[in-house]
Specification:
Elements: E1 4-9, H1 23-30, E2 36-45, H2 49-58, E3 67-72, E4 75-81, H3 89-105, E5 113-117, H4 122-133, E6 137-141, H5 143-152, H6 157-166, E7 169-172, H7 175-185
Helix pairs in contact: 3-4, 5-7
Length: 212
């Protein structure tokens, strides 16, 4: 029996948004002989503006999360409704984590590892779910998105730092992204593996002997 890994990614082609980057899908396809992969592909959508304002006021800043889900080849596509511009960022992603908890608890067989494919978005939901259920999680760090969001949200620095520190293992796509995040959030002593991202432009080349 292969180890069962549940990935949570906002960068995965799915029925709601089929034209997203295939990078994470390529990574999963390349390792399908070693792991039993499953994906929860998350997609943020804008809620009704008047409805979210009323819900926020009536719930004292904690509006209930509305979701839609659909099964597809790789797992589950999830659309969740949350404001843009990072409003209620942590609150809504913690509730995505609650959705993950309910989904995992409904199963007879739980995954052995959760993987969040970005620290600053998926990492919040996955950390919350992992702590609730008692499953370890790993974390990929994507340079452009993660560094920009962490820099733009100093109010969430403590949460971002705990997401980084609590991960069982971290897979930065680039060294510079890890350097920037550890400078802001603190350094991990171990449990780090660089993971260059496969792209559709990569072409395997046969080895060639060097001539000196």
């Amino acid at each position: 029996m292969l180890p069962h890994v549940l990935h949570v990614s906002g960068d995965f082609p799915d029925p709601f948004e089929p034209f997203k980057t295939p990078v994470i899908r390529s990574l999963i396809d390349l390792t399908r002989d070693d792991f039993q992969h499953e994906v929860v592909s998350i997609n943020r959508a804008k809620p009704d503006k008047a409805g979210i304002i009323l819900d926020t006021l009536s719930s004292f800043g904690h509006p209930a999360l509305e979701v839609q889900s659909e099964r597809f080849e790789y797992g589950i596509a999830l659309r969740y409704f949350a404001p843009s511009r990072g409003i209620l960022h942590e609150t809504m992603l913690d509730q995505v984590g609650d959705w993950l908890v309910d989904e995992i608890r409904s199963r007879a067989c739980r995954p052995e590892l959760l993987v969040a494919h970005k620290l600053s978005i998926e990492g919040i939901a996955v950390q919350h779910a992992a702590q609730e259920i008692g499953i370890p999680y790993a974390l990929s760090i994507q340079g452009d998105t993660d560094t920009k969001i962490v820099a733009a949200r100093p109010d969430l620095k403590r949460r971002f730092a705990s997401v980084l520190a609590d991960a069982a293992h971290v897979f930065p796509f680039t060294p510079w992204a890890l350097d920037q995040l550890t400078h802001r959030l603190g350094r991990r002593p171990n449990g780090i593996t660089m993971l260059p991202c496969p792209t559709d432009l990569d072409t395997p080349l046969p080895p060639q002997a060097s001539v000196k």
